[in-house]
Design a protein that fits this description.
The complex is a heterotrimer. The radius of gyration of chain A is 18 Å and the shape is globular. Chain A has seven helices and twelve strands. Chain A is an alpha/beta fold. Helix content of chain A is 38%, strand content 28%. By secondary structure, chain B is of the alpha/beta class. Chain B is globular, with a radius of gyration of 22 Å. In chain C, the strands form three sheets. Chain C has a ten-stranded mixed β-sheet. Chain C has a six-stranded parallel beta barrel with strand order 13-15-18-21-19-16. Chain C has a two-stranded antiparallel sheet with strand order 1-2. In chain C, helix 2 packs antiparallel against helix 3 and helix 9 packs across helix 10. Chain C is globular. The chains are: A alpha/beta, B alpha/beta, C alpha/beta. At the B-C interface, strand 19 and strand 20 of B face strand 22, strand 23 and strand 24 of C.
Amino acid sequence: MLEIRNLHASVGEVEILKGIDLQVKPGEVHAIMGPNGSGKSTLAYVLAGKPGYVVTAGEVTFLGKDLLPMKPEDRARAGLFLSFQHPLEIPGVRLDQFLRAGINGIRKSRGLEELDVLKFDRHLVKKVQLLEMDQGLVRRSVNEGFSGGERKRNEVLQMAVLEPTLAILDEPDSGLDIDAVQEAAKGINQQRGPENATILITHYQRILNYVVPDVVHVLINGRIVRSGGKELALEVEAQGYEELQEAEATLRSSG
Amino acid sequence: MTLSTLVAEEQEVLEHYLRAFGALERNGAARDGSWVAALRRSAMARFSRLGFPTARRGNEEWKYTDIRPIARRPFQLPLPPGSPAVGAAELAAFALGPTGGSRLVFVDGRYQEQLSSRPSLPGVSVLSLAEALTSGADTVQEHLGRYADCDTHAFTALNTAFLHDGAFVHIPQGTTLDKPVHLLFLSTAHAQDTATHPRVLIVAGEGARATVVETYGGPSGADYFTNAVAEVVVGPGADLTYYKEQRQGERAFHVTTTQVVVGREATFSSFNLDLGGALARNNLNVAMDDERGACALRGLYLMGGAQHVDNQVIIEHARPYTTSRELYKGVLNGRSRAVFHGSIIVHKGARKVDAEQVDKNLLLSDEAEADTKPAFWIYCDDVKCRHGAACGQMDENALFYLRSRGLTEPAARRLLTRAFVSELVEGIASETLRDRVDGLVEARLSSWLGDDEAVG
Amino acid sequence: MTGTNQYVKDVATRGYQYGFVTDVETDVAPRGLHEETVRFISAKKKETDWMLEWRLKAYRYFVSLLKKDQLPRWANVKYPPIDFQDIIYYAAPRPRKQLSSLQEVDPEILRTYEKLGIPLEEQKRLAGVAVDAVFDSVSVATTYKEELAKRGIIFCSMSEAIQQHPDLVQRYLGSVVPYTDNFYAALNSAVFSDGSFCYVPQGVRCPYELTTYFRINTEGSGQFERTLIVAEAGSYVSYLEGCSAPMFDTNQLHAAVVELVAMENAEIKYSTIQNWYPGDEQGKGGIYNFVTKRGKCLGKNSKISWTQVETGAAITWKYPSVILQGDNSVGEFYSVALTKGYQQADTGSKMTHMGRNTRSRIIAKTISAGHGSGTYRGLVRVMPTASNARNFTQCDSLLLGDQCGAHTTPYVEVRNNTAHLEHEAFTSRVSEEQLFYCNQRGLSPEAAQALIINGFCKEVFKQLPFEFAVEATRLLEANLEGVVG
């Protein structure tokens, strides 16, 4: 579904990603772990096409198509979803209004009929109920005045509504207490299916107890230094990133 | 009095200044270069054409401040002060304490060598402007009169016409001054009402760092008018902190104009404290003239009785990536009145400007008045500008909360008033200056709200 | 971001859709302003002596201001001097005979209003909306009159009110905006030709949205309407006005005066959707919209709320204001002002707090595109008598493109220390971060812009009666082409 080969990317003058290789198949959950500043969010932004994140080398294909020349909205329409680590406020724009515009943009691009207010509302209500969220939320302005936890849950709701093929979740657990992490995980698991895949970016192993990954990657200094099964996450948690960072440094100096 | 006699009075005062100017020229009191004489003459010509901005109609810049009390009084140029010019006690009241830095003292606008101290600082010039003009420093000629606008500003024109002394501070490229430079301007009581026109030029070269403190003091119970102009050049990458305190007598008239030019990647921080004066007006104009310059302008005014203070702050973002932060706060007691008029102008093409402007007033008495005008003039779309203003009395809920914890009402009031101003006091980076401001603020608030014994 | 630029370009150059001219015979006063013009208008309206006298006093005052050259010049707008002798001060569609019902209105005029989407015919009318339509200078039709009369509500043209309810008019006309108020109010007082009058008796809640539709049709004519609304104790009325004009190369002057009076516990809600012809892409032609609107909360607990959506006119100069005289009275101002092309707007509000516990709220949204220049100008004044006054002001600006300007000049004057005032404002463009977030959810840059702009205006739109909120949203979107699918 997603193939990343030797991806290098910079922000301004600074190279952040220094050669990433990653393959994601339908039905899989990949966890990407790494310390702060290792390039996790950059990878997410590069995949979603954020302006200012410049790919300097490498290639990315998504569902067989070259992802990199695509505009952000075309990537979304192709089925790529990014859950933001810090979701933005859009004052005055109601969540339901916002999502209907989004879903219809996606549907239109696929030659599907646009959803009218009623049909969309039914779809939205179903998802809100599934996630056991407050119905009132969808009438509020996007993220305006939301707490950190509400914003994260709102991202999960948006994912559920838009039903992406590939969901990239950038630290959906940061700033949440254990109960909220479980809630978020439940929402994420509900979206898992044989046809879609998830890339879960996290600093801590905690959420991986609830969203069990097929593959775990450790990202340090813009490179994936190790990949393995779900047990790798526990290992990383136990020994911390320092050792891996040192190992990476040694690797670099010797290479 | 009819309108025509009043206008005639203003005309009379204008002629008085023209005569005084003529006398000064004839006496040859100013023996500096011909370029200064030319500068003065054109400024006088300009002033006589402009007159004082007394119009009450369509006079936006002076909408809330009526300067007719200044415009209708023929202030005299003071005679050179006797010796000693001021007593030790008066000096101590305003001096900065033993910082070991340079200190220039001016009495009635004239430099006093015996009261000043000038430790040797290699390459750095800290001297009286009169001296700098006669010794013919190139830097002075390069900058003096270049930034402060005589064409439209009558007070600047008047200052320039009578320009004869003041301070010249030059911190050359790459130099850091650890100790503050203190410029102390003292007015004294005279039989006649007097006016002084001090002029300050501060030039911070590329990468220079320094703090300059300007103090305006003088006796209470006397009428005098200070009309100061400062030009401040902050060179590329330089970092200049400019701290000004106005502590003149309760009958003093005080007008200052500070024109600042902030260069590429330079930082200008100012703090403006107003405690004195019957009528005080501060014009602070900051031109963000090159990319990535930053300025942080702060002001605090504590006014009581019938005092009137007017802060007019104009920030011009002429170039991209410049930022400004502006925070002014006032506490008003008695029948005092405070005016804040802030303008942020963003020129076409000045992308990524980030500007913030806040003015807050706390009204302690029911006769005080606050007039605020925080304005934006924005000609570029890629900017982030915010302003806020708030005005009111003390929060009754907070007051109740404190009293329920055992504080007396006066103590709670003082505590909340202090809390209101603390953001500004705490924000002063230099400990010496912070303690000084803290002391001055505390003294003023205690005189209004009682002192610490009131804490129950 | 080429998509964004295209959008911005679209916004900047979007054409005017209401620019057709209606072919009807009109009754026109000779060009120019003289005492005779004033007498002509007054005679045309068969006015009583006091009305003529009042007009003449206003005329003389106006002439004195003109002689002293005391035109208001403080606003942030630029235009060549207006030749007040080159304006037609009265133009009325010539009636075929005395109108007794809507069927007798010139069908051309009815068609005009239909094109504008203003339903005059009862069956096509929006439920619950009573309409008074002013064509050039005179009111051509008022609907629902009988229904309103049953409740004692008077809703008619100003001309009719002067005839039928002279004591009411005499008591309140000029009581909020005296003819000495300002240059254009003086002019209006001298030459006003028509407008709407509304009187809601004590305790009556007006069940309909009252609507006046203003249209300037004759080239070279000015429109000087005068509106007066009086809400007696405990009454409520919601009033909406819409405006449009054909496209002419010359600038036309529209100098209206609106006065509102709210007695104890009364509430007046006044909404404006202004879409006068803004001039062409080069800034040629268009309406000068120089309007004085003021309400007086005379009684205790009264409330006056202004909402305006200003998308048209070459130049807008208006400051709907409230004098908060009664204790506990409330004044509100909600505004969206869009300037594009070469439009200029200097608009805002003035809240004068006099009574105790008076509250005011100002929400102003300025959108500038193309070479447009938008200025928010506001004054909040708390008088010494206004204990516990409260004000909240928020004036935000959005810039679309790099040739426009957005300015904010709020004045705050506080003379009572028990007052609490808060003022906040921001100016920015639509942030790239927000756009990216929207794009990531599948919205095109154009759709995202439109959505964000709509969100920006929402607090104002939601103040409008429902049908008009929809209308306003559509108008803004039409003006901001490109828009949401």
